[in-house]
Design brief:
three-stranded parallel beta sheet; 90 residues; Ribosomal Protein L15, Chain: K, domain 2; 4 helices; alpha/beta
Length: 90
């Protein structure tokens, strides 16, 4: 029997997996204070290539109060957005 048939098959690809585009808080500083940041605004700014799922991570600092409407936000990013005066809508 050939070697490739004797070796065990490994791995699994989940076809229902959600792939998130990761955005850091430093990237949100390019928006004006008081603006609404959603997936479409991120696409228009060139941070996201398509209308997929977006997750914001707490890398860096945010200095402007923003209203954020994305799919997921890390706990540290939530705290930093709220302390900067912004709001979060998931």
């Amino acid at each position: 029997m050939p070697l490739h048939r004797r070796l065990p098959k490994r791995g699994f690809t989940n076809i229902f997996k959600k792939v998130y585009t990761l955005i850091s808080l430093d990237d949100l500083n390019r928006f004006d204070a008081g603006s609404v940041v959603d997936v479409q605004a991120l696409v228009n700014a060139g941070l996201v290539k398509n209308d997929g799922f977006v997750k914001i991570l707490a890398n860096g600092e945010i200095t402007k109060p923003l209203t954020v409407k994305v799919d997921k936000i890390s706990q540290g990013a939530k705290e930093r957005i709220v302390t900067a005066g912004g709001t979060i809508e998931e």
